[in-house]
Amino acid sequence: MFIKNENLKLANDATETLKQVINKIYDTRNSDFANGRTIRKIFDEVVRRKNSRVIKLPETERTKENLITIIKEDFNGLL
């Protein structure tokens, strides 16, 4: 939902990684766990990483596709 609302998309391999991240969070949750807040924090961090990755690309590679696509590597360190 966050991804769609922000006009972003997940690369095919990132979909499985997102599922793994969510499953890990769910499996390790405690009494303070809040679904929406936790997912929003993850989404914000992944978007920040995507933006950092894209800004490092040569200008010729900063295509719309690269600007809107979240890739597997944007989730590194969240597992």
Describe the structure.
By secondary structure, the chain is mainly α. About 60% of the residues lie in helices and about 5% in strands. It has 4 helices and 2 strands. It has helices spanning about 1-5, 10-25, 35-55, 65-70, and strands at about 10, 70. It has a two-stranded parallel ribbon with strand order 1-2. The radius of gyration is 13 Å and the shape is elongated. The model has no long low-confidence stretch (mean pLDDT about 90).
Count of individual beta strands = 2
Indicate the structural class.
mainly alpha
- How would you characterize the largest beta sheet? 2 strands, parallel
Strand content: 5-15%
The N- and C-terminal alpha carbons lie at a distance of 21 Å
Quote the average pLDDT. Answer: 90
Sketch the topology as an H/E string, one letter per element.
HEHHHE
Global Rg: 13 Å
**Largest sheet strand order:** 1-2
Label the overall shape: elongated
Unreliable stretches covering 5 or more consecutive residues:
none
Roughly how much helix do the residues carry, as a percent range?
55-70%
In DSSP terms (H or I, runs of 4 or more residues), the helix count works out at 4
- Work out the oligomeric state of the chains in this entry: single chain
Provide tags for this entry:
mainly alpha, elongated
